[in-house]
Amino acid sequence: MESTQNLDIFSIVAIGAAAMTLLAGFIIFFVVLYQKKAIIQRNEVEAIKAQHQRELLQKTIEVEEKERESVAKNIHDDLGALISILRLNNSRTAKNIDDKEILKKILESNKVILNKTSESVRSISKKLASPTLIKLGFVKALKEVCTSFNQTGEIAMRFDDQMTQKFKPTAQKASQLFRASQEIINNIIKHAAASEINVQLSNEGKRTIIKFEHDGAGISETDVVDLIRQDKGLGLTSIQSRLSIIEAKIEYKAPTEINPSIIITYYNDETKD
Amino acid sequence: MNQLFDLANGFIATSIIIIVIGIINYKTLVQFNALRVLFYLVIISVISDIASTYMQANGIHNIWLFNVYNIIEYSLFAVFYLTLFNVNKSWKLAIGIFYIVAFGIMIIATATQSFQLHLNSASMGLKSIILICSAVFYFKDMLSKLEYETPWENPFFWINSGILLFFSGGFFIFIFSDYRDTTRMINLWDIHNIIHIIYNILIIIGFWKARKI
Fold first, then answer.
1. What is the DSSP secondary-structure string of B126-185?
2. Nearest-CA distance from A46 to chain B in Å?
3. Smallest Cβ distance to A6: which of B132, B149, B184?
4. pTM for the full model?
5. Pick the CATH number of A131-270 from 3.30.565.10, 1.10.150.20, 3.40.50.1110, 3.40.470.10
6. Is residue A31 very low, low, confident or very high in pLDDT (cuts 50, 70, 90)?
7. Using 50, 70 and 90 to split pLDDT, how confident is the model at A212?
């Protein structure tokens, strides 16, 4: 009887030990297999990300090149012309050094040209960096953009600040966010033929949300992908590249029943929740 | 009986190899608290195994030594995993409290049973379950972080595999450890000794791999 009981215990323990060892072996085997697959997958994702980053960088360089060209054009057309007039006035002064009347006219003309030059310099520098953005921050700068567009009377633009917390991104991040927002507004005006744009700023936990809702023709995520693929969306790529630098997200929504919108989600303190 | 003696010597011998590699790699071990704790555990294990073999050979009761070693082993493994887990503070605190509560239960279970005459199968079983769970948790942690290109490069993969195999394979043996005085069960302790040798080999590989980090 005792021997049968011992045999039973022996069998239970031996089978149990074998089963548990097999189970442990299976877990280890699974870990090895899973890690291999996970590493391959991670490498693939990293390669795709790196490729995407390279493309974004390329597009960023293109956008920067275009911006430089535009600044150069402004300097050449505005400042260049004004400086040429000043140069001409200078030679006229030399030729008419004894004629007080002409000198007086040249002086007045120079005064006007210098004022224009100063205005032009201010305008170019504003294009390069918004003084409001630097001095008063992103929210005020965006509000200023909305107000300026609204004042033209061509489009009805509303700025709705629903922030319950202070929004203070770093200067570099604020600049990227501001440029992307400007580009979005420009795109809506230029391509969506909207007559009304509502810019709404709100926060959800650690996320800041900037929503651009308009009554024009909407653009969906698929449209954006197609345009970028066809190399027609330099502006869209520029937005994407600026936002990817600050790890913000952009969504394009074009539903049929309500107004289309473009939503930027910015993660404060680089924390994604 | 001879076979048991040989296997017991086998795992003592492999444990000594771990100590030798540990001494050679001591500079590396010092950098990893988890490895250092494991190294100390192996030293205690060898001392305990030699002492128990000597006591058995001289007809001295050695069961109390197994019971004491069981608690020391659990405590050091708890410290090992607490050091190894790369989790946030609240998780670490929760795991720490869990280990301490289990430690308390093991002490009570050992103290309430005949400490000198019986191996405390309840506390050995509890220890095995906790360490199996800890080993699986480490694998989960390892897979989520993917710090190494292959698992072979990670010394803790080998060590953790050893712990998982040892405590999984030994689980039923530990639970029925009280029956060790029957002829059949001595054969089962042979299985335990074989698993112990495999465990030691995996620890040796882990300690050896740690040199390259």
1. HHHHHHHHHHHHHHHHHHHH--SSSGGG-HHHHHHHHHHHHHHHHHHHHHTGGGTTSHHH
2. 14
3. B184
4. 0.62
5. 3.30.565.10
6. very high
7. very high
